[in-house]
Task: inverse folding
């Protein structure tokens, strides 16, 4: 059962890494998928750097948790996803942004990572 849960957790990690690499290699199509107009100059640098960094860190932290069996890596991913969900919610409440449907998988995966930190990590 642990292997199945680890495989389930591994799938979004790989998808996050692929998304981060897409931001680095071909930012225009991935920006459109996120509803962004691709910026120019310093704005483009910020978009590509921040978005690729977000997704690469998220995917890498999940994989590091799976490989190293250290809870902190799962916590890092859960915290990043949780802050993202809070930011989306506040943007909706305060700044009249559309409520993003991505918030549901973010919250679900954050909870799954917290569960993984208990289920997949052996106590020393």
Result:
């Amino acid at each position: 059962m642990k292997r199945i849960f680890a495989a389930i957790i591994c799938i979004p990690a790989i998808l996050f890494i692929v998304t981060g690499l897409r931001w680095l290699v071909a930012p225009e199509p991935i920006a459109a998928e996120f509803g962004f107009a691709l910026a120019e100059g310093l704005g483009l640098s910020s978009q590509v750097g921040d978005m690729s960094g977000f997704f690469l860190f998220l995917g890498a932290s999940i994989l590091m948790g799976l490989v190293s069996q250290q809870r902190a890596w799962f916590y890092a991913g859960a915290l990043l996803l949780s802050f993202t969900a809070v930011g989306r919610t506040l943007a909706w409440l305060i700044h009249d942004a559309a409520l993003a449907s991505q918030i549901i998988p973010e919250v679900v995966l954050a909870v799954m990572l917290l569960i993984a930190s208990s289920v997949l990590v052996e106590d020393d």
